[in-house]
Design goal:
The complex is a heterodimer of chains A (about 150) and B (about 170). In chain A, about 55% of the residues lie in helices and about 0% in strands. Chain A is mostly helical and about 150 residues long. Classes of the chains: A mainly alpha (about 150), B mainly alpha (about 170).
Chain lengths: ~150, ~170
């Protein structure tokens, strides 16, 4: 999903934490997109233009690594760690469901083996109107949570 | 394995024809879990329970739809399980901070951490042998077994206990 939507989700999530946590919530919500900067040359000014630049950190490997980091953060502050975990988890979930992520693409050189002999699955996206609808729902839900 | 086969047979017999692809059913399951996450944030246990129960039913339905369409899409299904569990457990930890939710998070993260370690070992130092003897062998086996455990079931039972028995989570 787009950066604006991830930021909106971060703002909505901050409502469940003390008021000073909003900047951290937005930062954590945008954090997984930092991997795009590693592949600046692949950026294109078109729909899905940044997605070609994502790395394994948007997939299952990223989920596993971020959750491990979040668990380590719990040693210092449980509230801060839960904010980190929920913001990153929401980001990865929303990107996966909108078809941005191909979760097993980077971790298995032979996706056919991973898929029990079947061809590898396509990402969940594909139809543009479904993506627009999903993004509109997330923005609307974020606004409702933030305002109520 | 036996339970899985019976569950599949039951789903095949009960699910009516649905004009949707298996991926779309999986996608709906994802959004139902998103609703459950929001309900958990608001500590609305009945709504969270109903949403999670619907998600579990949809989990059976997407498999039946896929088999009927001669498709097998465990990659999408498995990836959805992982992302949903991550989102729901993080939400649960936020709403009900305590040792039970922390323990659940650890139980979810530990097998993933082992999975990363094994992946990195296979990828970068395939010749390095980790001594798998004694207690460590059993711990490793348990963590590997947990990698394929569907954690949403545990959360559903916990939410049910909290809702019906008015149980204050420690």
């Amino acid at each position: 999903m787009t950066t604006i939507i991830h930021a909106a989700v971060g703002i909505a999530l901050s409502r469940f934490f003390p008021p000073g946590y909003m900047p951290a919530a937005v930062a954590f919500s945008l954090l997984p997109d930092a991997d795009h900067f590693l592949n600046v040359r692949k950026w294109r000014l078109r729909v899905n233009g940044f997605e070609a630049a994502q790395t394994a950190m948007h997939g299952v490997l990223g989920a596993a690594l971020y959750s491990s980091v979040g668990l380590l953060m719990m040693v210092f502050s449980r509230q801060f760690a839960s904010l980190f975990l929920i913001a990153v988890a929401m980001h990865l979930f929303l990107d996966f469901i909108s078809g941005v992520s191909m979760p097993f693409k980077y971790i298995e050189e032979n996706p056919v083996r991973m898929n029990f002999g079947n061809p590898p699955d396509k990402p969940l996206g594909g139809r543009f109107w479904i993506r627009v609808l999903q993004e509109a729902i997330v923005i609307a839900v974020s606004l409702v949570i933030f305002m109520c | 394995m036996l339970i899985t086969r019976h569950r599949k047979n039951l789903a095949d017999a009960l699910v009516p024809p649905i004009p949707l692809s298996a991926d779309d059913v999986t996608r709906i399951r994802g959004w139902v879990c998103f609703l459950a996450a929001i309900a958990l944030l608001y500590r609305n246990l009945p709504l969270a329970f109903c949403a999670l129960l619907s998600a579990l039913i949809l989990d059976g339905v997407d498999g039946a739809v896929a088999r009927r369409q001669d498709l097998d899409c465990p990659q999408t299904d498995r990836a959805m399980d992982i992302f949903i569990e991550f989102m729901l457990y993080a939400t649960y930890l936020t709403s009900y901070p305590g040792w039970v939710s922390t323990a659940l998070m650890i139980l979810w993260v530990a097998p993933k951490a082992i999975w990363i370690a094994r992946y990195l070992k296979r990828r970068f130092v395939p010749d390095f042998k980790v001594p798998e003897t004694g207690l460590w062998r059993y711990v490793l086996s348990a963590l590997i077994a947990l990698q394929s455990y569907i954690f949403t079931h545990t959360l559903l039972v916990l939410i049910f206990l909290q809702w019906v028995l008015q149980w204050d989570l420690p």
